[in-house]
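Loading example: each entry is read as four labelled lines plus one structure line.
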Amino acid sequence: MFDSDYLEGCLPEILEALQKTNFEQTSGYGNDKYCEKAAEIIRKLCAREDADIHFMVGGTQTNQTVIASILRPYQGVICADTGHINVHETGAVEMTGHKVLALSAQEGKITAKQIEKTIESHYREDGPEHMVQPAMAYISFPTEKGTLYTLSELESISKTCQKHHIPLFIDGARLGYGLSSPKCDVTLQDIARLSDVFYIGGTKQGALFGEAVVFCNRNLSVDYRYFIKQHGAMLAKGRLLGMQFQTLLENGLYFEVARRADLLALEIRKAFEEKGYKMFTDSYTNQQFPILPNETIKKLKENFSFENWVKVDEKRTAVRFCTSWATTQEQVQTLIQEIKTL
Amino acid sequence: MFDSDYLEGCLPEILEALQKTNFEQTSGYGNDKYCEKAAEIIRKLCAREDADIHFMVGGTQTNQTVIASILRPYQGVICADTGHINVHETGAVEMTGHKVLALSAQEGKITAKQIEKTIESHYREDGPEHMVQPAMAYISFPTEKGTLYTLSELESISKTCQKHHIPLFIDGARLGYGLSSPKCDVTLQDIARLSDVFYIGGTKQGALFGEAVVFCNRNLSVDYRYFIKQHGAMLAKGRLLGMQFQTLLENGLYFEVARRADLLALEIRKAFEEKGYKMFTDSYTNQQFPILPNETIKKLKENFSFENWVKVDEKRTAVRFCTSWATTQEQVQTLIQEIKTL
Amino acid sequence: MFDSDYLEGCLPEILEALQKTNFEQTSGYGNDKYCEKAAEIIRKLCAREDADIHFMVGGTQTNQTVIASILRPYQGVICADTGHINVHETGAVEMTGHKVLALSAQEGKITAKQIEKTIESHYREDGPEHMVQPAMAYISFPTEKGTLYTLSELESISKTCQKHHIPLFIDGARLGYGLSSPKCDVTLQDIARLSDVFYIGGTKQGALFGEAVVFCNRNLSVDYRYFIKQHGAMLAKGRLLGMQFQTLLENGLYFEVARRADLLALEIRKAFEEKGYKMFTDSYTNQQFPILPNETIKKLKENFSFENWVKVDEKRTAVRFCTSWATTQEQVQTLIQEIKTL
Amino acid sequence: MFDSDYLEGCLPEILEALQKTNFEQTSGYGNDKYCEKAAEIIRKLCAREDADIHFMVGGTQTNQTVIASILRPYQGVICADTGHINVHETGAVEMTGHKVLALSAQEGKITAKQIEKTIESHYREDGPEHMVQPAMAYISFPTEKGTLYTLSELESISKTCQKHHIPLFIDGARLGYGLSSPKCDVTLQDIARLSDVFYIGGTKQGALFGEAVVFCNRNLSVDYRYFIKQHGAMLAKGRLLGMQFQTLLENGLYFEVARRADLLALEIRKAFEEKGYKMFTDSYTNQQFPILPNETIKKLKENFSFENWVKVDEKRTAVRFCTSWATTQEQVQTLIQEIKTL
């Protein structure tokens, strides 16, 4: 039951909204009042009245479509070697013709300096055209390892991107869990101020599905609807997306449930640490990666489910415990009791 | 309110199923019991115990992914010039590198003979490699104009495809409306017997979203999940698709509501014909295309909504009236009363 | 010996130039003095001092690379249904993700009006993103059928393209044969004035290989070298291209040999017409397409080689006789003698 | 004059062959007697009577076309991070939709073990479809750093590829320089026995241009001509390629000139080493990479030209000296004299 943050359906408030509006008739393809309303809420929360908002169904789809819409054919996207687009999207970016320029990450993160060096190393005065042109930076917030960029790190990266005239794209599949973490010094408005485009993940935070793409830099989105359609990503009943984000965001539900999940995750972390287990990454969000002896894992799996993440050595494995909007205090307490007996 | 067949949410039975199962935990990505159950039902209904079933979110996505998964890079897909993939998918097929070989259609349909001629004309003994190789036929059932292939036409097309070793792919975005038409002499089992791959459309027939792809020819689907993922089309909470198709198909709901919509559409057709209006296409399904004087259209639009389809001449336009699972007898009667007064 | 215009090696002047410069050392990839010199000559001949010139190896490569460099992913290129990119390039344009929007051609030509209508029909106020966006017009001069656009036709097409802000691309694989035809009222400077990008074909007009791409609209070529490289089209010893075009163009050799080939072709045409044979197309360039009885073809093939082009009816076939820079007066006279005896 | 191995035109024997056959008429597109003859010679030299041979114009084009013809869309190619396809082809492989899976190389080489580990790490029992499938290994012989795989290394790599049913592709852009090195224990027949497909580079070894692709595994090449055409890589006057390879290979000219260039390069290496300079890589082929103080480089560049390769530290840079079929004994002696004075 700690396998992932998309094991259940959705927040009851969302089902309720679907129920209540089911027989209303609206235009298709995202041209409806729910999408409009959700976009308006997002613009306000981001303090970006000029932002252009589009709703997509899933994360890989969003990454692929946003990147394909921005890069020219010979350009590539810089990212962490552990980045989702580099590892777990079956080459979705390459499918659209673009190289992923993967940099060696520390705790899932890359630095402004690495980005700068990559840009410089791909430029030769006498023939830059023999190499892919780095033309976008992609980072995840939080990262695939649950870690967070600090505000200062984000500002450096943003500045470097601006200096080299390349857009910064932030994958926010778990954005809420990141922003709600007690260790986070970044706000949604910072994200909107420092990136050119980012998204607010719904799928992993209580929606049935859905990611809200926010183009802070409107120059980048003038023809984005063409890309949505061409990628088979235009939901006929687009209102389903608008309605979910309206429900999540208009009264703070999104951040409330994320905060709760983070705190539950940190209780799990604490329990492991108190027993002397090391953590694979320094995560303060809803994913925790303790390194456990293989026998301990076997024992814990008798009563709990969670994913094996990375083999650390012959005897130990890093595993992942995920909390979500649906995780209960009881589930966590039962787990903690068991950890104490290890 | 007759604009399209995806104006509302979904059949109440589907919302009910979502509600009832909301807190169950299942694996993601379509590896869950609901998808398994729905696949089993489909295999039975199709009398194809060996069929391989996959669930997708929307029609363009399905067309793009299925075609890309089957063709080699230098191959193309034969279709009607009015076919959805040729006209209304923003080049989604070409995006994956393949030419759409569009044939001049009659009433939205192409013939076995046209397909054969196309294959032959693309082959030259001394250098076939200078032309795209036609390697798949795509037809829609019903067509984009609401018309239906007869069983005999389908059998000819299927035979021609087999003779030339190219798969036949049937776009069933509105399959239920087709199979349930009083003029249809084709069954679901015929579709499954005569095609290599087809899909059962959910989006336009009462689901929130969803298309069930049926690979009758299993050789074609061995690596299909890679394509789903790479196209950003793998729904994290895949069970939403399985659950919807289970609900639609296990007790015949899907065909029941389609039949009802077809009959309502035919009442509308009859009303127009009785007033002497010609129909743009000979449709016996849920889409009706009367040719109306522009002034009449203007008048009708005061109380009813429907789409302008094609300009026929300076004074007349073919329009589209669409019924759906959600259309009520009252709505149709009110429309018919108005038609009578024209 | 009348099969095509690329049966032999090259003009002796070119071999001579290669010989003379063989041991010179130059930079690779087109950054050499020969390419520079050839570009300069072309700019002068075109009276476009601002044109950006690039040299490519072959026609399909040039079409694919130019089109891919200009279109955005969801855009398509308008062309004649008989256009080379639509029929004989194995989907090279689609391979790069773009739809070829093929219009019904007359004598290999399309009109300004057809282009305009296509642009308009692909635009819908309430959702243009469901269709490919026509964003370029491609025509061949002369056409694949040997015919020529008149200056007035070219001006109309150019004006329409400008009106709709789409570039006009002219495939000049046989440009010399076109411009040198006695029936041609268009000059090289007209081509350069009326198009945004075009190319001067070398392969079919006496070079070993090579096409000189002329970007009259420099905005279109800022990153073209990236595309050349990415398409595997950047010749290491780029000087071979520059040297050939320098040789062809600096003293008018290119047009001289084309003129000669055209006149020889017209003698062949005249011989057929005097015997009462109809021509398949009204060509005044180096390709002639007489319609001959199948028996006559068989007889002629005993002593001459030429291509069967299109089956006209059960008894007759249009064939192609091609002259080139290498065709001799003797070969043509022998053929004409034989025609007279038919 | 030591900048690269493609500064001059071509071996005089090739120009002579072009001259002698210039007015012969042959079929286009590689269907001619010269290509046939060259293929026959290659098959004999390789002792692979069943090999399928195709001629291409350049290296990037060859890499792109071969890889695209073999991989399915969701598959990737394993290579060294220093591999030409990873670094210097402007994303030509990604352009066709495929991920390049770059492994950390030692001296430009990767190992069988690395390949195996990569394949294993991309497979998960519960969902391999979330990652690109490694489906080909690409290595260069000699490598981009001038180094050579030993026979034993090649045999291990080949065995690993076979075990995992993935083809091995060897980039032989400088194959002759590799096979002719005094330190090489691999023969052309080994290359042909151990790889599924490889090519014999002409461009950098005395041809005007041209790479001969040898499919040892014929299953991989059944539709290769479609790919050549679709990639704009089918030379109209294909005989130019056949004729060059016939000239190079029928009397051993290719290996003779490569051997000579290697020995000259090794003299240069020796001269640097005798003066105490370290080499950046342990190359025994025609490229030598001494690490020199920046001042020394400046001084040497007064009389000689060569490329700066990699900055080693603040004071030193690795540079590249390239010999070729055209390098003379005199040029090398003059350089060596200068080195002695450093």
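Residues 196 and 219 of chain A are 9 Å apart (CA to CA).
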